[in-house]
TrEMBL record:
The gene is murD. It holds the Pfam family Mur_ligase_C. InterPro entries: Mur-like_cat_sf (IPR036565), Mur_ligase_C (IPR004101), Mur_ligase_C_dom_sf (IPR036615), Mur_ligase_cen (IPR013221), MurD (IPR005762). This is UDP-N-acetylmuramoylalanine--D-glutamate ligase. Residues 312-423 form the Mur ligase C-terminal domain. Belongs to the MurCDEF family. It catalyses: UDP-N-acetyl-alpha-D-muramoyl-L-alanine + D-glutamate + ATP = UDP-N-acetyl-alpha-D-muramoyl-L-alanyl-D-glutamate + ADP + phosphate + H(+). Keywords: ATP-binding, Cell cycle, Cell division, Cell shape, Cell wall biogenesis/degradation, Cytoplasm, Ligase, Nucleotide-binding, Peptidoglycan synthesis. It comes from Geotalea uraniireducens. Cell wall formation. Catalyzes the addition of glutamate to the nucleotide precursor UDP-N-acetylmuramoyl-L-alanine (UMA).
Amino acid sequence: MKLVDKHILVVGLARTGIAVTRFLARSGARVTVTDLRSAETLAAALDELAGLAVDYVLGRHDEADFAAAELVVVSPGVPQDSPYLLAARRAGREVITEIELAARFIVAPLAAITGTNGKTTTTTLTGEIFRGCGFRTFVGGNIGNPLIELVESGEAAERVVVEISSFQLEWIREFHPRVAVLLNLTEDHLDRYATFDEYIAAKMRIFENQDAGDYAILNLDDPLVASLAGGLKAAVFPMSQQREFAAGIFHRDGTIVFRHAGREERFPTASFKLPGVHNLDNIMAALATALLLGCDAQRALAAVEGFVGLPHRMEFVRELDGVRYYEDSKATNVGSVEKALASFTAITLIAGGKDKGGSYAPLEPLVRERVEHLILIGEAKERMARELGQLTDTRQCTTLEEAVTLAAQLAAPGGVVLFSPACSSFDMFRDYAERAERFKAAVRALVGRSGR
């Protein structure tokens, strides 16, 4: 892709926008950056780009800039129906996201992982397996490290693993993973997409440029994912906790079995450290990806056995008075909470936050069967109470700290207090990580019946 003297507009100056701008400017492109935030607000970002030949349009967007650029690299946070992006399209300009730009410069085998839930754990674990098997590996994408940072660094990665969001997939054109993984599909981001079908269509673009020499790893236990398998050009590699395959990966009687091209590998799960039944899906997807891209089975198993998981995903906080406390702040949608509830019984569930527009109905059977007390917080608490409150003992609290104190009073020895919100955090907190730390601090501040 020729960049020298190419007029490129970068939209948004968060971490990804900074990395894109730096790469393009150093590659000889004529770069303009536009952001609705002011120069004062963006002072730290501008300092990172000091000395580079970049033009800035800050505090506003100008349709003329979008129409004049030869290429527009847009932040995934900007919706497709933005009038500025529509102006670029009307002018015949190419609009892409950073993930598409970076992939055009990467030659190493690339694995891309998407789904509503489990993406970050699966992506991180896949990277750990590749590293454990001796491959120089870059892990990034939606997980935190922009893919363009690999290109900019000039490092010779042998394997590349990226977490891909639906937002990033909206503007791809040539993005072509050697292995693409779809973990699951549940309602999410309906504050962005008009319908669930639009969200699914964005996710499915991960397979768009694959061919018969590539692999599509699909979780066939998810009915929606299974229904979409027939239209793919890549070789479908199925995974399941419920079914056995002659070729694929599945879990049976405490063992994960991988079968491909006459090869069979077995991975006993007794020594795995990741809690929760849903993490078996994540482990199977990671193992399948790694083995399809050349990893040794025994070294892969050792990497899985050493993986303890990520913060804010079913994270054990403490046990007090016989009650275990788990923080699952990353569970920002209903599908993720379903998996958390399926992992425990005798649950006191703390949930709520900023509503994302989906239905809470899928939680009904698990709330009825497993949740003894439901404590609701945040903007969504009234709606959640209407949809779920009749299923179990339900209370509402004003703050997260108040909810933790109440949960400690209600939960009986042998039970679990689970903070799994099913909502985003932006009504009360900066992000899900701040929300998680507040929960953990409140739990650690509890005083038990013994006075400790």
